[in-house]
Target: IAA-amino acid hydrolase ILR1-like 4
Amino acid sequence: MGFLTWVFFILQILLLHGLPISSDSNLSSKDLSEIPKDFLKVAKRVEFFDWMVSIRRKIHMHPELGYEEYETSKLIRHELDKMGIQYKYPVAVTGVIGYIGTGGPPFVALRADMDALPVQEMGEWEHKSKIPGKMHACGHDAHVTMLLGAAKILQEHQEAFKGTIVLVFQPAEEGGGGAKKMVDTGTLDNVKAIFGLHVAPDFPITEVYSRPGPLMAGSGFFEAVISGKGGHAAIPQHSIDPILAASNIVVSLQHLISREADPLDSQVVTVAKLKGGDAFNVIPDSVVIGGTFRTLSKESLMQLRQRIEEVIIGQAAVQRCKATVNFLESEMPFTPPTVNNKGLHQYFQDVAGDMIHISSVKDMQPMMGAEDFSFYQEKIPGYYYHLGMKNETKGKLAYLHSPLFEINEDALPFGAALQASLAARYLFENKPETTPLNREHHDEL
Ligand SMILES: *[C@@H]1O[C@H](CO)[C@@H](O)[C@H](O)[C@H]1NC(C)=O
Ligand SMILES: *[C@@H]1O[C@H](CO)[C@@H](O)[C@H](O)[C@H]1NC(C)=O
Ligand SMILES: [Zn+2]
Ligand SMILES: [Zn+2]
Model:
């Protein structure tokens, strides 16, 4: 065998039989503050890092849209099988839920989203998307990889856990309400806390960003058909002009924000779609407009929904048009705001601070982008944070959803180790109230 063949052979053995995680695998006797640093060391080991990179690239080359993540889900299950982790499948079409530990309470969950976007990748590199018109342009390939990385770290210590870590691989984050479907199955009912992350191309690597309370907006979508009466453009008195009505509607919708919303309660209404008319000299029968609205509280979201409908119908009537408004909730359910549990904020700062130093654990302003992690937070105390990826010496990274989006793979160990630490420490710090049996085994899933 040549040298490279040997290296490959040894790597295979390491991957098949699990990596030596820690010289002292008695986690329960360890000082809790050492766990995050230890986990990061493990995740940064060359063979562990290379394994994560290879998984991330495989997923990146085969992006799948919401509820179509069959191959991604298969890859996840294959890796969980190799680690000896039990799981439920399918949950919410393509979702997978894995279990590490005793199989009994308390339960703490880690979440990753699996779906890609309908974007054509424009960057040229060896592992670019092989599927025309689809791309992991939001970094969910990295999220899946980091959760598998966390799973591998945690599984090596499964004997130490008094409780169960629940690995949540969900479909369809990008507007499909995959998290809602997962929650609706009831499989997370007993979970005491859930953690999720997003890669952030504009925050520095080795730093994490979040805040207590509202972190990301709730969002809804709307589409309206404004109907008038078509006719000759030179004889307007015989027509009812839906273009003028639509124009006034677009302007009036902006007044909901400038005149009705509390200036300190951030809100957005954007009309992103406006379609009507094909000729220079014909007034069309109807115009379609559509867009999105965002708020930082669920009450404001519902209030805005009601006012959008009233303004569209009322303003259409001013110009003698009729309007119907559709909030498209069956295809694109309203996403509630992502609101971080205040107690978990302190906990997150402690754990992340132990891993990367507290000066790298930063507060951030809320963002008006939406994230369906909020569906878990409606049921379970949850905490969501952003993981920095920017490395100035390597240059700028394109923003999320860009066809030039890239992952800085150096961030993978940080996400894997931090997620693993958040789950492990949670179980050590939240012991079950009663311990009737000393459960040595974990076959009662
Ligand atoms: C782990 O540490 C605890 C507490 O120090 C000790 O009681 C236990 O025997 C240790 N277990 C192993 C397998 O070393
Ligand atoms: C940033 O990039 C440089 C150049 O590739 C590398 O040497 C350094 O380790 C990177 N920093 C981090 C934190 O990954
Ligand atoms: Zn996205
Ligand atoms: Zn995303």
